[in-house]
Amino acid sequence: MNDYKKLLEGVKEGSISIEDALLEIKKKPFEDIGFAKIDHHRSLRQGAGEVIYGAGKTPEQIAEISKRLLERSERILITRLDDKQAKDLSECLEFTYFPGTGIGIVGSLPEPTTQGVIVVATGGTSDIPVAEEAALTAEFYGNRVTRLYDVGVAGLHRTLSHLDELMSASVVIAIAGMEGALASVLGGLCDSPVIAVPTSVGYGASFGGLSALLSMLNSCASGVSVVNIDNGFGAGYLASMINKKGENR
Amino acid sequence: MNDYKKLLEGVKEGSISIEDALLEIKKKPFEDIGFAKIDHHRSLRQGAGEVIYGAGKTPEQIAEISKRLLERSERILITRLDDKQAKDLSECLEFTYFPGTGIGIVGSLPEPTTQGVIVVATGGTSDIPVAEEAALTAEFYGNRVTRLYDVGVAGLHRTLSHLDELMSASVVIAIAGMEGALASVLGGLCDSPVIAVPTSVGYGASFGGLSALLSMLNSCASGVSVVNIDNGFGAGYLASMINKKGENR
Amino acid sequence: MNDYKKLLEGVKEGSISIEDALLEIKKKPFEDIGFAKIDHHRSLRQGAGEVIYGAGKTPEQIAEISKRLLERSERILITRLDDKQAKDLSECLEFTYFPGTGIGIVGSLPEPTTQGVIVVATGGTSDIPVAEEAALTAEFYGNRVTRLYDVGVAGLHRTLSHLDELMSASVVIAIAGMEGALASVLGGLCDSPVIAVPTSVGYGASFGGLSALLSMLNSCASGVSVVNIDNGFGAGYLASMINKKGENR
Amino acid sequence: MNDYKKLLEGVKEGSISIEDALLEIKKKPFEDIGFAKIDHHRSLRQGAGEVIYGAGKTPEQIAEISKRLLERSERILITRLDDKQAKDLSECLEFTYFPGTGIGIVGSLPEPTTQGVIVVATGGTSDIPVAEEAALTAEFYGNRVTRLYDVGVAGLHRTLSHLDELMSASVVIAIAGMEGALASVLGGLCDSPVIAVPTSVGYGASFGGLSALLSMLNSCASGVSVVNIDNGFGAGYLASMINKKGENR
Amino acid sequence: MNDYKKLLEGVKEGSISIEDALLEIKKKPFEDIGFAKIDHHRSLRQGAGEVIYGAGKTPEQIAEISKRLLERSERILITRLDDKQAKDLSECLEFTYFPGTGIGIVGSLPEPTTQGVIVVATGGTSDIPVAEEAALTAEFYGNRVTRLYDVGVAGLHRTLSHLDELMSASVVIAIAGMEGALASVLGGLCDSPVIAVPTSVGYGASFGGLSALLSMLNSCASGVSVVNIDNGFGAGYLASMINKKGENR
Amino acid sequence: MNDYKKLLEGVKEGSISIEDALLEIKKKPFEDIGFAKIDHHRSLRQGAGEVIYGAGKTPEQIAEISKRLLERSERILITRLDDKQAKDLSECLEFTYFPGTGIGIVGSLPEPTTQGVIVVATGGTSDIPVAEEAALTAEFYGNRVTRLYDVGVAGLHRTLSHLDELMSASVVIAIAGMEGALASVLGGLCDSPVIAVPTSVGYGASFGGLSALLSMLNSCASGVSVVNIDNGFGAGYLASMINKKGENR
Amino acid sequence: MNDYKKLLEGVKEGSISIEDALLEIKKKPFEDIGFAKIDHHRSLRQGAGEVIYGAGKTPEQIAEISKRLLERSERILITRLDDKQAKDLSECLEFTYFPGTGIGIVGSLPEPTTQGVIVVATGGTSDIPVAEEAALTAEFYGNRVTRLYDVGVAGLHRTLSHLDELMSASVVIAIAGMEGALASVLGGLCDSPVIAVPTSVGYGASFGGLSALLSMLNSCASGVSVVNIDNGFGAGYLASMINKKGENR
Amino acid sequence: MNDYKKLLEGVKEGSISIEDALLEIKKKPFEDIGFAKIDHHRSLRQGAGEVIYGAGKTPEQIAEISKRLLERSERILITRLDDKQAKDLSECLEFTYFPGTGIGIVGSLPEPTTQGVIVVATGGTSDIPVAEEAALTAEFYGNRVTRLYDVGVAGLHRTLSHLDELMSASVVIAIAGMEGALASVLGGLCDSPVIAVPTSVGYGASFGGLSALLSMLNSCASGVSVVNIDNGFGAGYLASMINKKGENR
User: Fold this and answer.
1) What is the pLDDT of residues A117-152, one digit of tens each?
2) Residue A36 lies in a domain
3) pLDDT of residue H66
4) Is the pLDDT of residue E187 over 50?
5) Do H193 and B237 touch (CB under 8 A)?
6) Mutation test of the interface with chain D: which of A39, A61, A217, A228, choosing the one with the most D Cβ atoms within 10 A?
7) What DSSP letter does each residue of A95-140 carry, written as one string?
8) Which of E106, E134, E151 is the last residue of a domain?
9) Which of B51, C177, E215, F34 suits a disulfide with E180, CB 3.0-4.6 Å?
10) Cα F5 to Cα F10: distance, rounded to the nearest angstrom
11) Could you give the C-alpha distances from F199 to F63, F124, F148, in angstroms and in order?
12) Does F122 reach chain H within 8 Å, measured CB to CB?
């Protein structure tokens, strides 16, 4: 509000005419009063500014954005890199690449700071790349993460053998393709929020993840919500948001 | 083949010319040689002739067809009746109506003749009408049937509390709307064929049963196959076919 | 675990043979050891047992279930009642009906016990029935709720005039039909989890809520997840789960 | 109408028989009387004849068509070229290629002749190729163009920081993939026509642009209309049509 | 900006302290500084505030909103009324109802003030209700409108017999169900913007307007854009926006 | 062309000036020169003018159109009437109504004039209304028609028992809902064109006829083409067109 | 029927016993009595046996099938060859390849034997490969063919300039992608059957030909039927069937 | 249950305290008591453990899993291998690859042990890869298999010439793409269960198998159920399950 104070002082002193002041107020209502601050606020709290969506960007663009971000962040998460991008990027930027997950991290993963644990569960082994995107994202934001891979409902004993981890989780991320039943089963077992991630794993009538998506949206278990197909990052980010609600008490 | 025998005898005896015999053979290849027999055969073995699809038929039409069928069948299964049809039909035909299931039966249900048990399981209570269509169909064909209703996967303990029935079933019919996960869970638990029936129960993104249908088609459990949305009759009929494979030994 | 203790004591004392004990353990692994407890546990923590999905149930069924539930609950939430059901139900059960929302409540709404506020925002006035389903659900579970109705993005100043409420919310429920843009805009403004509820409001290419559903799933804002079309209850329940994570510290 | 005048004069003079004249009139009602003129007219006014849709054409075909068009046009716009086509084409035709946009221009872009400004706005950086197709098309037809890229609604302050340009625009082209909310937000802020271009940017439930398409069609803001997914040219052409309505007064 | 002017004058005169003025500015940034003006601005220019979307509103709600709007508007357009609503509404509000179009108008339609003509064309007679919604909307905003109904492409001579009106139109609204080819044909004939409105007229594979919608989006004619299925109001409003660009010179 | 002849004669005689003649030619290019004749031509050859699409028209409108058409036609075909319309219409117009088919005929059906026979076959009894629409349409245009109803492929012997009729048909109309396999089977058996009509008969995954439609479009038999779902009229009309190709030799 | 004649002669002569004859008749009812003849019959009349669907076959398989077919056919039509297959095939089989059309022909195209002309029309130049598949197929079966390419409805004068050819055609094949309006326009202009072929040409909301397919199915012109997307062969084959109905009189 | 027996013996003997035993039972309820056995049970009966889904696995992973499985299985079935995987895998594992089917088998196929025959029928030659996946799977589990390839319904005589095999089959697997009519025709001819496998064979409106899938789900023949598109393994496995029901009596 300093700008406005100066403006008002100028008006009072007569150094700024009322008309000019009015124009000034009219011209910049958004960036000056509130929004720039909002933006700043968000990047401080959420670190959203520290993530780069890698798909479709050249290594040079990613490196350039990284450099700018590093001025105010310790670490950067790059998502949806392919192997070729990662290789080329490694020539102009120092970072750790997690092959098969699309994830690159500039700087190191932090020590987990949360008491609450985010469980990342997958129906099959083919869902692991999406799961790692979710898990690494959650770890990037300082969360404690437990991975339960290949615990799909067609072999219910595998699911149930992890009942302890599931029931003590703060948030559960249920990742599955094909029929996507994992979300409902975990939603019924757990009393924590379940974030369901349909994956494009499958063939035929899975229609690129549509089957799992619809299945998860129709989950008859309470406490289940859904993100986009293959959106591991979104699930990890949201899980971190929720997990941190219960921390720092 | 009697007609052909007579024809050949006539040719041999000279009472039928070769040209006439050729014409005869050419004229009726299908109905005379094999197909009428096939048809007869089918109705004997399958009783398919004893079922009337009630939807869109007038009470008079149903009564008329029933009378013709009763000449060679003891009992008749009428499917997809609505209450109005049933009421009107009851004025011209003696039969038992099962309200809320769309099923009417002329004659009485037979005593079960199979050792094997068909388990009819539903995810919720709203799936029961479809389930009864399946169960009554199976019973109509003489099968022993166990009903497990409202054992949906969001309350897994309900499902698991019936593990005995499920694991000893000869065939399982899994009926569910919404996310349709029941088929996968039962497919993973049982080692008998699972016939999945998606239902149109649900709202929003269930899209009239599409969600459950896709989910069931993508089941990652082996031994699961799917029939049309709400097709209880089809499931009961197929279950009977399979169940009887293991009988009469 | 009392049953198992008795069993083991019997084995130790010799009053139960090892074979009988083994059979007992084999026979009831689920209901006896863990799952009944899980179920009990869930209803205690989540109150999920206290909700009745009214659609497709007769007033008698709802009244009957209510009576059973009232034995261990102070209040019951009934969802998806229509006016006819509500009227009939009022003859056999004392409850408060919220016309136009599908909600009936047996007992009274509790005083809010949370510090955190759940904001329920809608794009238009036609989304209010779904919003009330969400808001009353959240209040039923003791949450403090703020309603911001008709703040759709086509009149952005309406949205922005509530920036304070939005930015201080613990959880935001964004409810919109048609193009469903509200979720993205709120997701960009808030730093709390946003639960998006697509509604079937609209016509033509809204395809019964599909447009809003896809839009919300593709939200480019982080922290947004989606529930089924028109699923106000699911959103309210999940919001309560998340809101309570930050309480009782 | 010269041909008809000559014909009539011939009839009057007797050099053409009535029968021949009738045949002549019958034979060419369309191309001679009106339509050829219509066609001519259109290419004069709209320059539509000066655009080549490059996709699926060989460099030779494009070069050949270009040469014919250059006989009556100063400049030619080629759309949907890929890098390979552009490289091959450069060997037989002099033109400027705009890498990453699919656009090639024979001749030079004209100086803008309009007072009104067309704002081309995109939700993200991945939408820029489509945006450049739109912007270059508008410039090709002599329009003044302002580019506002990466002003998506998840960071509303970015959108609002360009309020001046948006509110003074003559036409706005809103280009976005994923949830396509940009069209509604701009439609609500601006009082000029908004042409919405859904893009195929995104993954999963964006279904190749379907999500953004439906979202934009359902826009609750007035003054918004939609063109095909990724159809930058169509948007630029229509925007030019509208912008020029307000010119030359 | 009057409030701000007074505030500044107060500051200049010393009757308001800088601190109080700052607080005032901080407290109501949106409605007072900028957005209310935007809003005000919009209603002046666009009259958007003068339209009531009738669907789903009670007669009382519509009457109430109308009264508020009449304080600053001479006339009000009510869309998507059904006959029942219109009848009930007529008891508490004076207005003219246009049966079969869903349109009610409070006050009288203005004399057309534009030179430019908006042509509203339909493929068949069943599209007329949507067309009247568009035409009356355009007339409500003071546009000159020509109606060309039932000029569908299967009888091309009907279309072509109106070539004069079509070619001299300022804007064309092409309204068609079924195959929606009208938009392409008019787009090819006219050199003015064509706003295509798919309608839900048809059966079978028209899928509620989807066929016409896709057809229109894929129009190979330039200058065509599309609004939602049956959205006559949207087309009429946008056409008015465009038509007025060429006026008042 | 009489008008033009007179015009030319006038020019030749000097009673009309060249300028006036030019103006005349310019003024009415379509209706006078060519298109009116085209239109006239079409109604003569095709009788298309003699059909009234009844859906959505009031009895008064239908009666009015009928009267105009009867001035130049002996008989009129009205399609898609419902029982209510038919009853009301019978009060102002003399015609024969075919209950359950939607067809009304003013005047009497003509004696068949073709040698070639159009076979109208249906998969089931529920397809008969659509079949009668097709058959009556074909008869209306003077074709010889054979009806083969309920010959669906699940009872192949029924299909094959009509091999004679099928193989001697001039055109076959294959009408089926559900899986629509009839078109392929008949396409394989017959060597005449097969016009496939998908019907909306079925439930669940028949999706209103979509299943049969896709099935028929993908027919692996040659000589099969498809019309819109439930479009009996279109099939009958096209069959008549084709059948008449082989007549009058 | 020669086999049967011999059999009957043997029976008459006593050289074959009645039992052996019966067995013979029973053993091979289909291929010997009727179906082989049907099959033979079909290949004689239709030449269907002379077509090879090339897609997915190895050059060796195609060459092998060709050799067998050449024993009883003069010429063979191979469809859906790609350039690679064609090149490899040319090493083991003499044939003419039509690049860009997928068509190869063994032997030479016959002189046209029909009076009637099949018009093959396309909306754009990208539809030509499908059109050539249709045109060459029709020519392969001896039909006179006129090609009218790039006469799409967005430039109606192009369509209308070929009115003569269109109105005198025996059958019209209308081939178009994108919005597929060509079928309706031609259906309205011509009084011969119109076979519509949607093509996968287009992008975005053309959804691989779905837009054109739906558009053509919903054609409001009578006499239009539709084949599968890109199915040039099917259209050419059916057109030949219909064209020949009017020949040899 | 050996672990539990020991535990109980320890309790009886006094070497384990009741508390410790309780803890032990509580700690591992699923894997130890029941589910591991269930799992073990399943792998014994079903051999499900002996199948490896090859898609997306590295040769190393497949080899590793194979080695573990070979400890308790004689043979292993690997599905959905591509040629590259198969080649690489052959360097680290001894197995037989069936090119074009995606199937690899470690060990040798067993001699068939069933009386009942599984008929695997395909509509065309392009369906053979899916058919071989089904047939080899059935043989892998010891079933007698008859292959009937290319017996599609467009050439019904081909289908019918195998009536004997079809009518004596224990289970029929009907595999077809495009219009998928084979399932209905076989379902009508056979009185054994028919497992329908839609394939992705086709183009255009086959939409990757959707057409065949819907067609099969809507089959009007009784006894037909459906598995996922291209899911040969699932069909073969289920057929084996059903076939074995009738064995060992």
Assistant:
1) 999 999 988 899 999 999 999 999 999 999 999 888
2) yes
3) 87
4) yes
5) no
6) A228
7) -EEETTTTEEEES-PPPP--SSEEEEEESSGGGHHHHHHHHHHHHH
8) E106
9) E215
10) 8
11) 29, 10, 16
12) no
A221 contacts in chain B (CB < 8 Å): 153-154
According to the model, what pLDDT value does residue E249 have? 46
Instruction: Tell whether the model's pLDDT for residue B196 goes beyond 90.
Output: yes
Please calculate the CA angle C221-C224-C229 and round it to the nearest 5 degrees. 125
**Closest Cβ–Cβ partner in H42, H167, H227 for B225:** H227
pLDDT in the model for residue F43 = 38
Cβ contact C125–E57 (<8 Å)? yes
Q: Which of F4, F8, F18 sits opposite D5 (nearest CB)?
A: F18
- φ/ψ bin of E207: left (φ > 0), alpha (ψ from -120 to 50), beta (otherwise): left
Domain of residue G28 covers 2-6+13-106
Total domains in chain F come to: 2
Query: Cβ of G189 and F41 within 8 Å?
Result: no
D246 in reach of chain E (CB within 8 A):
yes
- CB contact under 8 Å between B9 and G18, yes or no, is yes
Is there a single domain that holds both residue A94 and residue A121? Answer: no
Could you tell me the pLDDT band of residue G23, with boundaries at 50, 70 and 90?
low
Rounded to an integer, the average pLDDT of G148-165 is 81
* Closest Cβ–Cβ partner in D27, D38, D229 for G204: D229
C-alpha span between G211 and G177 (Å, rounded): 8
Interchain pair A218, B210: CB under 8 A:
no
What are A102's strand-pairing partners? none
Amino acid in the structure at residue G175: I
Q: The domain that contains B217 carries what CATH number?
A: 3.40.50.1970
Residues G124 and G216 grouped into a single domain: yes
User: What region does C193 belong to: left with phi over 0, alpha with psi -120 to 50, or beta?
Assistant: beta
The alpha carbon of residue D17 is apart from the nearest alpha carbon of chain C, in Å, by: 59
Q: CA-nearest residue of chain H to B217?
A: H228
pLDDT of residue C158: 76
What residues does A114 pair with on adjacent strands?
none
In a domain, G111, yes or no: no
**Domain boundary residue among G51, G77, G106?**
G106
Q: Does A204 have pLDDT greater than 60? A: yes
**Alpha helices (H) in chain H, listed in sequence order:** 2-13, 18-27, 35-46, 59-70, 83-89, 128-140, 156-160, 163-168, 182-189, 210-217, 232-245
Q: List the 196-215 stretch of A: residues with Cβ below 8 A of B.
A: 202, 204-207, 210-212, 214-215
Q: Is residue C112 part of a domain?
A: no
pLDDT above 90: residue C6: no
Q: Are residues F85 and F156 in the same domain?
A: no
Q: Which residues of chain F have pLDDT under 50?
A: 1, 26-49, 249
ipTM entry: 0.82
F123 and F243 together in one domain: yes
Partners of residue H224 in chain B, C-beta under 8 Å: 227, 234, 238
Average pLDDT over residues E182-209: 92
Residues of chain G contacting residue B21, judged by C-beta atoms under 8 Å apart: 8
Residue H112 falls inside a structural domain: no
Q: Are residues H239 and H134 in the same domain?
A: yes
User: DSSP secondary-structure letter at E195?
Assistant: E
Do F210 and H214 make contact, defined as CB atoms within 8 angstroms? Answer: yes
Q: Does C195 touch chain A (CB under 8 A)?
A: yes
CB B176 within 8 A of CB B123: yes
Residues B124 and B233 reside in one and the same domain? yes
Q: Which residues of E touch G122 (CB under 8 A)?
A: none
* Chain C residues lying within 8 Å of E31, measured CB to CB: 157, 161
| G131 and G98 in a common domain | no
* D210: closest CA of chain F, how far (Å): 20
Residue of G nearest to H159 (CA): G30
Same domain as D153, residue D102: no
